[in-house]
Write a structure and sequence with these properties.
The chain has 71 residues and is mostly beta strands. A hairpin with a 4-residue loop joins strand 2 and strand 3. It has no helices and six strands. The strands form two sheets. The chain has a four-stranded antiparallel β-sheet, with no helix packed on it. The protein has a two-stranded antiparallel sheet with strand order 1-4.
């Protein structure tokens, strides 16, 4: 579980820019970020405790992960 921050690291073969979206479990977009580097720290401290879907895409397709915010 994440508390305040979540580290995103992409493999070097990932095409940049890489767009990351965070959704709640009802499918509502919470926030969106554009990665211009292979590493990024997402600030999650403002999100309520719960489960979220992290979706990322580049020119090669979509990747989806689940993150849990624990406060």
């Amino acid at each position: 579980p994440a508390t305040d921050v979540f580290q995103v690291s992409l493999p070097k073969e990932t095409a940049l820019p890489f767009v990351i979206s965070i959704f709640d479990l009802q499918g509502m977009l919470i926030e969106k970020h554009t990665m211009k580097d292979y590493n990024m720290v997402l600030q999650l401290g403002h999100l309520p405790k719960g489960n979220y879907i992290l979706s990322g895409f580049d020119t090669h397709g979509i990747r989806i992960s689940k993150i849990i915010v624990k406060q």
